[in-house]
């Protein structure tokens, strides 16, 4: 049976480390392969490539996510089960008899599903977004920031489409887009082909979370996954979150 300490080590997401521990894993001698201007050009083209090709591969169309929502709408995500990661609240609407209670978006999870209905998406059709959000209660480490700029997508499917074959096909299409973005940006900036940064593999390897647990039964989740990617450099894990 797991102890409380073991369970803490298995927790997903931020807040499970300390800033001295983060300091240990951040490289002290990091140097970008591109100068600041080249970096911005590369980021622009990578983002455009991924957005455009995700839409092609997954039958999506691009829309914008709101940065601000009203509290009463209920579409903001609290990111946890205990309500400790609260959004930024503020009154909005100077001159109104009663100002609106508004929040800065933390995640678009709920909003995207409403958007599928709002934009009359048919089965197999969906939306692509570039979400900006603020997560003020996040532990700030090499993986997590208080400011979030992330790609999101959501597609309407039916119950019979919820199977492993459909999941794997979708994941392979996404990986194809990511791999294509790498090839594209390396063509624009050949200096990105650096032996210190090996290319992404062409194919993903699929694992179920239970398989990984069986492979490394005595290790917490993060250490299991770290060991796994030493042997399989690109993996998709099925079953995360199940008991």
Notes on the structure:
- The chain has helices spanning 4-10, 19-25, 36-58, 109-118, 164-188, 209-215, 221-231, and strands spanning 60-62, 68-70, 89-92, 100-104, 126-134, 147-155, 205-208, 235-238.
- It is globular, with a radius of gyration of 21 Å.
- Strands 1-5-6 form a 3-stranded mixed beta sheet. Strands 2-4-3 form a 3-stranded antiparallel beta sheet, with no helix packed on it. A two-stranded parallel ribbon has the order 7-8.
- By secondary structure, the chain is α/β, with parallel strands linked by helices.
- It has a domain at 31-200: 2-Layer Sandwich (BirA Bifunctional Protein, domain 2), CATH 3.30.930.
Mind sketching the topology for me?
Layout: H1 4-10, H2 19-25, H3 36-58, E1 60-62, E2 68-70, E3 89-92, E4 100-104, H4 109-118, E5 126-134, E6 147-155, H5 164-188, E7 205-208, H6 209-215, H7 221-231, E8 235-238
Parallel strand pairs: 1-5, 7-8
Antiparallel strand pairs: 2-4, 3-4, 5-6
Helix pairs in contact: 3-5
């Amino acid at each position: 049976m797991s102890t409380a300490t073991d369970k803490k080590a298995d927790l997903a997401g931020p807040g499970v480390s300390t800033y001295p521990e983060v300091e240990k894993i951040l490289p002290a001698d990091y140097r970008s392969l591109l100068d600041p201007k080249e970096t911005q050009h590369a980021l622009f083209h990578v983002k455009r490539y991924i957005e455009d090709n995700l839409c092609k591969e997954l039958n999506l169309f691009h829309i914008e996510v709101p940065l601000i929502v009203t509290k009463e709408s209920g579409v903001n995500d609290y990111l946890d089960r205990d309500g400790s990661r609260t959004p930024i609240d503020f009154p909005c609407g100077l001159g109104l008899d009663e100002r609106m209670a508004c929040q800065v978006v933390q995640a678009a999870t709920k909003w995207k599903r409403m958007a599928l209905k709002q934009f009359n998406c048919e089965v197999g059709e969906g939306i692509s977004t570039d979400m900006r959000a603020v997560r003020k209660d996040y532990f700030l480490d090499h993986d997590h920031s208080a400011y979030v700029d992330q790609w999101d997508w959501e597609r309407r499917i039916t119950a019979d489409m919820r199977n492993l074959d459909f999941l794997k096909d979708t994941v392979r299409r996404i990986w194809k887009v990511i791999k294509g973005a790498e090839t594209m940006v390396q063509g624009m900036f050949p200096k990105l082909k650096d032996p210190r940064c090996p290319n992404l593999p062409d194919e993903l390897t699929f694992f179920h979370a239970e398989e990984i647990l069986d492979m490394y039964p005595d290790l917490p989740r993060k250490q299991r996954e770290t060991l796994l990617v030493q042997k399989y450099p690109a993996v998709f894990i099925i079953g995360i979150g199940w008991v």
